[in-house]
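Hi L.,

As promised, M18 family aminopeptidase:
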Amino acid sequence: MTDREENRAKKLLEELSLPQKSAWERIDSETKEKVFSFAEGYKAFLSRAKTEREAVRLALDAAVRRGFTSLLDCPSGRVLSAGSRFYLEWRGKVLLLGIVGRTGLDEGVRLIGAHVDAPRLDLKPMPLYEKAGLALFKTHYYGGIKKYQWTALPLALHGVIMLRNGRRVEVVIGEGEDEPIFTISDLLPHLAKEQMKKNMEEALSGDDLNLVVGSMPYPAGDDVKDKVRLAVLNLLNERYGVVEEDLITAELELVPAGPARDLGFDRSLVGGYGQDDRVCAYTALQALLDTDVPHNTALVLLVDKEEIGSTGNTGAHSRFLEYALTELAARTGGTDIIQVGRIMANSQALSADVTAGVDPTYENVFDLYNASRLGYGVVLNKYSGSRGKYDANDASAEFMGRLRDIFNQNRVIWQSGELGKVDAGGGGTIAKFLAYFGLDVADCGPALLSMHAPLEIASKVDIYMAYRAYRAFLAG
């Protein structure tokens, strides 16, 4: 091959092939500074947003500081002008934020949907018992977890307790350096011979996830039973006014204690709990806050319950989006439900959720030609689901093409991805529930390592590119 032919081949390769290069090598020093700066705000959010309620509250506080007002405070029939910033909060676990666009709602909205719940351990309604001189709480795991990952781990207790008098008490124990933590004990290897013979799923059952909460007996006579249990009840009553019946009506969640941290010698990664999917919630929030007046009305929807199927009245499978668009239409010149259907039919959405990045230790479960990698940009997924695309939204070629053009025109570094080999498993997102209403939808978010583990890993450059992608999409 002559030099001329070789140069032509290299030019063709550059023109025709998709770049397979780390995003870190494709950004300049100024952008790199923005990447690291953006990550600081994200880590602060992730460290405080340990539950869905906390994530919604932090997002709402940030929006109010940037001029967002309640949609319900605007009288029905009044026409909101372009650039108006509004929010609609739902039961403390769902939040819709929006900026009115230059075009009418009939032309559709640009919506980014993310979920703010994460795998965790919930307390059972009657959690407290005593055994072998210890007080323990019984738990029920929430979402898809590997149960063994939650033993011998520092845990914090977050949640809400409703007292008998109707008073609402918020609880956060285990995050401060001077506060106690909790843990689920593990069997020592010296006595675990039979346990170690079992497969991972059978070695630990859900009912084995019992939380150690105390060991000091209440000072009382021998005729009083379960003195350690009584001592814990007394402490809860003295500090919060709680009696045992109040625990039945409480929402108390156990999450890994401690803040999100930089990970790696080069600090290029973020390690922390709940990045699935609060990394997308945060980047979508920041993208909207930094949007001026969009062409189409721009919305960010933060929902609950994705990890258990998007069920209930705070999940994406609820009719909250219909309700919210009805309220919005009533304040932008529309009045009837027919218009709401037209809005959704003309709308476009990103299901902002994470995907699995290639783990070099377990690369046998990935299709390396189609898998995403940490540090190679935000991931654009045409479909999710499992095996034969079951339970998936499958975005059209036309919509994927529009997204590709938006990202390229705005210098967003992105990659395609797929959640593992075809028959290795899979997973879903809220995309199919948004598609149910007629919106064009595709999945878009950063890749993670150790997804659903107590500590998940994301690349800072992917986090920043997710923000860039969402901002470009919302701006139109």
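The chain has two domains: 18-118+273-475, 120-256.

Thanks again for sending the construct details.

K.
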